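Sample entry follows:

_____
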Amino acid sequence: MFTGIIETLGTVKKIELEQSNIHYFIESPISPDLKIDQSVSHNGVCLTVVGIEENTHQVTAIHETLEKSNLGKLKVGDIVNLERCVKVDGRLDGHIVQGHVDQTAICSAVEPQEGSVVYTFEYDAALNNLTVEKGSITVNGISLTVVNSGKNSFSVAIIPYTLDNTNLKTIELGSTVNLEFDIIGKYVSKLLAMRQ
């Protein structure tokens, strides 16, 4: 389990293909402290550390993960958001995040405002995921608050600190991001679908 509070950024140093899997080699400040078998969120995707060498750790994404997330679009040099799993005795500063991406979305607007930036994302509503205004959403592993909610879109307002310390600063019109919808919202959506 994660909180959606990004711990640090990592850089993709190498990518290796193995059948339908992709191995990513990520350089980051936390890589030397990781352990084999540890779960780490990469752009909101929970991946298992399978190798460590100096300042780099290795993770593997399987076909299903690549289909549901933006990891398959990563290139050498790209920046990823990293978060280690939450400690039981720690504070839950964001919200409950499972590290299971529900679907991707496309950035449809980037609007600088007085001191912040508002991003709008559009997603496929056919998967019955939903957002609510003032509710939580995870974008590339970042716990954010929805400021505008539509049937297949939502907006989030980003403060300078979040912009400086996550890979949101690299998101532009047309960029693909990972979404994990709020767990409570997912249960409500499932119940509503069952009643119809």
The two ends are 31 Å apart (CA to CA). The chain has three helices and twelve strands. Helices lie at 63-68, 160-165, 183-195. The chain has a mean pLDDT of 93.
